[in-house]
Design a protein that fits this description.
By secondary structure, this protein is an alpha/beta fold. The protein folds into 2 domains: 151 residues, Aspartate Aminotransferase, domain 1 (Alpha-Beta Complex), CATH 3.90.1150.10; 223 residues, Type I PLP-dependent aspartate aminotransferase-like (Major domain) (Aspartate Aminotransferase, domain 2, 3-Layer(aba) Sandwich). The protein is 42% helix and 14% strand. The chain is built from 12 helices and 13 strands. The strands form 3 sheets. It has a 7-stranded mixed β-sheet, sandwiched between helices. Strand 9 and strand 10 form a beta hairpin. The radius of gyration is 22 Å and the shape is globular.
Length: 400
């Protein structure tokens, strides 16, 4: 029997990395031994105190039942203390924080809570593909705002203000930005809040990358005066604490907005596993030494990835923040897809084509830092060997 697919999925395909991982798995099963530099899933373990807290909690007989939809008071308190300590933002743990099963889940909750047919939502181009997906599934009209190297990968707020914003209800923003690694400063975030206030737009700020390779103190949009009236912020322990598979995130903002999102979320899950919550409390209590050691590893890895991209003739921008390196492809390739395909076929290394993040990313590729140094050294050696062989072949062809 053919079952018609709901119209809400008419424009939403399977997530790119879901399809690509199947392809890479098939290649590896055939003996290709692909090095995957595509996905930002931290390969490093959590701090030992975090796994110890998980194990200790899981050993308790009472720990395995359903949990409250708002998380434990201890977890919300730890999240509030984390925001105060690192961002200087005071949040009421009882009403202004909603723990999530990952911030990706929160994006869907926010979209389904506030968006419907007839509404419009602003999403970045390039940007995280899930932004478009959640907007489409909600039934809202997707309106892209351009981010380009010429504007420093920041939106032109004046151009947006001059456009018809009458039906725009939400604007999704993400700084430090993925995929470009751009960090926004306080001056820009202040202008962003003023823009939202002037046009009655709810800002949804996705903020999971501020602690990775950031040479300045991490920023929260909620620290900007007036932001709480027009903004909510998503955050995550996936990257900052190596807990990607544990699914621990949070939604922060004004109490009435958080309570409204809870109306939707409470119908979607039955709470977070208690041992994970108690382990997250331990993670959130980690001090600056944790981040220093984490970034020391990523700094060394970034040097290897930069060498690999430059061996391909790519041009990485300076000052990038986060788990990736974003780089312009050389003129010999039509776009990032062409370079990605060539490197996969020739060097058995996978780089993410920038076009999956939007049309403004087509001339770029993105490489992840989430592989051990030994693997990155092997990837660099493969790329150099392939490029040298390609250049030698081209030289022979010219002289033949």
């Amino acid at each position: 029997m053919q079952v018609p697919v709901a119209s809400r999925l008419a424009h939403t395909g399977e997530y790119y990395f879901s399809r690509k991982l199947r392809e890479l798995t098939a290649l590896n099963a055939a003996g290709a031994n692909i090095i995957n530099l595509g996905i930002g899933s931290p390969d490093l373990p959590p701090h030992p105190s975090v796994t110890a807290a998980l194990a200790a909690s899981a050993a308790q007989p009472h720990a395995h039942g359903y949990q409250g939809y708002q998380g434990t008071p201890a977890l919300r308190g730890a999240m509030a203390e984390f925001y105060q300590r690192h961002y200087g933002v005071a949040l009421d743990p009882a009403s202004e924080i909603l723990p999530l099963l990952g911030s990706k889940e929160g994006l869907m909750h926010v979209a389904m809570t506030f968006l419907e047919a007839g509404d419009a939502v602003l999403i970045p181009n390039p940007g995280y593909p899930t932004y478009r997906a959640v907007a489409e599934i909600s039934g809202a009209e997707v309106r892209e705002y351009d981010l380009t190297a010429a504007t420093g990968w920041l939106p032109d707020l004046d151009a947006l203000a001059a456009s018809d914003l009458s039906r725009v209800k939400l604007m999704l923003v993400n700084y430090p930005h993925m995929p470009t690694g751009t960090a926004a400063d306080v001056a820009f975030l202040t202008r962003l809040v003023a823009f939202a206030q002037a046009h009655g737009i709810l800002l949804v700020h996705d903020n999971p990358y501020g602690f990775i390779l950031n040479e300045t103190p991490p920023l929260s949009l909620l620290a900007v005066p007036g932001a709480r009236e027009v903004a909510m912020e998503l955050n995550s322990l996936s990257k900052s604490h190596n807990l990607a598979g544990w699914r621990v995130g949070m939604l922060c903002g004004r109490a009435d907005l958080v309570a409204t999102v809870l109306r939707f979320k409470s119908n979607m899950d039955s709470g977070m596993f208690l041992p994970v919550q108690q382990a997250a409390v331990a993670a959130l209590a980690l001090g600056e030494q944790w981040f220093w050691e984490l970034n020391a590893t990523y700094r060394f890895r970034r040097a290897l990835v930069l060498a690999l991209l430059r061996a391909l003739g790519c041009e990485p921008a300076a000052g990038q923040v986060g788990l990736f390196v974003w780089a312009a492809v050389p003129a010999e390739y039509a776009d990032g897809y062409a370079l990605s395909d060539a490197v996969l076929a020739g060097a058995r290394v996978f780089l993410t084509p920038g076009g999956i993040f939007g049309s403004n990313g087509r001339s770029y590729v993105r490489a992840s830092l989430c592989q051990p140094e030994s693997v990155l050294c092997e990837a660099l050696a493969r790329v150099r060997k392939w490029r040298n062989a390609s250049h030698a072949s081209a030289t022979l062809g010219m002289t033949a």
